[in-house]
Amino acid sequence: GAVVSQHPSWVICKSGTSVKIECRSLDFQATTMFWYRQFPKQSLMLMATSNEGSKATYEQGVEKDKFLINHASLTLSTLTVTSAHPEDSSFYICSARDPISLAGEGRNEQFFGPGTRLTVL
Amino acid sequence: LAKTTQPISMDSYEGQEVNITCSHNNIATNDYITWYQQFPSQGPRFIIQGYKTKVTNEVASLFIPADRKSSTLSLPRVSLSDTAVYYCLVVYSGAGSYQLTFGKGTKLSVIP
């Protein structure tokens, strides 16, 4: 199946700094990628939908100025947590859909990255 | 968006068949039913997806009744490595839109 990678796998930073997380589709082109956040023992919560070449669509309650999303190419989307604070510590996961490989099969599976563990001190 | 309801947790012994049922009463015509598996500190892994009736792959089966208001993930002969959280999702895809919302998940614990 299609592979999605994330970098870094984990990051520890001081409060007030900005952190960039990369999400790459390795063997397919993804016009749309999704960013999720997951707190311990909780489900994934969709933060935003990242569209290549256009502005991201944020879910209600997610600050677009704090969580900057850039989808500059068909294989890369980045999430930047600006002025991170301890409450931003979480597991951030991206996903992507491969519409070409799924065409004609009637399937709509998403491929998830391995996640990035962010700890803000 | 359709919402899903599934048991919070389940226990099973090794070698048994496990069935996890999910309800999605307000599922729409364009919605697919998808199941993911997640281990701690890892991204979700696709298990199976279906639209109606029965779907089977190398790891699981998915049973969907005619009204599509529920679905059952069946894991044959579970092993300890199947201990994970399983998410039932209804995926909306249509009119240029694609939406996926995770439910709370079912934590499956496989006992030796």
- The dominant shape of chain A is globular
Largest sheet report of chain A: 7 strands, mixed
Helix content of chain B: under 10%
Shape designation of chain B: globular
Mean pLDDT over the residues of chain A: 89
Rounded Rg of chain B = 14 Å
Distance between the termini of chain A: 37 Å
Average pLDDT for all residues of chain B: 90
Assembly level: heterodimer
Largest sheet of chain B: 6 strands, mixed
- SS class of chain A: mainly beta
Uncertain segments of chain A of ≥5 residues (pLDDT<50)? none
**Secondary-structure element sequence of chain A?**
EEEEEEEEEHEE
Helix segment count of chain A? 1
Radius of gyration of chain A: 14 Å
- The overall strand count of chain B is 10
For the secondary structure, the number of strands of chain A is 11
Largest interface: A-B, 25 and 21 residues
Measured between the Cα atoms of the first and last residue of chain B, the distance is 39 Å
Approximate strand percentage of chain B: over 45%
Give a nutshell description of this structure.
Chain A has one helix at 99-102, and strands at residues 4-7, 10-13, 19-25, 32-38, 45-51, 57-58, 67-73, 76-81, 90-97, 110-112, 116-120. Chain A is mainly β.
How would you portray this structure in words?
The complex is a heterodimer of chains A (121) and B (112). By secondary structure, chain A is mainly β. Helix content of chain A is 3%, strand content 50%. Chain A contains 1 helix and 11 strands. In chain A, strands 2, 4, 5, 6, 9, 10 and 11 form a 7-stranded mixed beta sheet that branches. Chain A has a 4-stranded antiparallel beta sheet with strand order 1-3-8-7, with no helix packed on it. In chain A, a hairpin with a 5-residue loop joins strand 5 and strand 6. The longest helix of chain A has 4 residues, at 99-102. The mean pLDDT of chain A is 89. Chain B is mostly beta strands and 112 residues long. Chain B is 0% helix and 55% strand. Chain B has strands spanning 9-13, 18-23, 31-38, 45-50, 53-56, 61-64, 70-75, 84-94, 97-102, 106-111. In chain B, strands 1, 3, 4, 8, 9 and 10 form a 6-stranded mixed beta sheet that branches. In chain B, strands 2-7-6-5 form a 4-stranded antiparallel beta sheet, with no helix packed on it. Chain B is globular. The termini of chain B are far apart. Chain A binds chain B through residues 1, 4, 6, 32, 34, 36, 43-46, 91, 93, 95, 97, 106-115, 117, and chain B through 32, 34, 36, 41-46, 49, 51, 87, 91, 93, 98, 100-105.
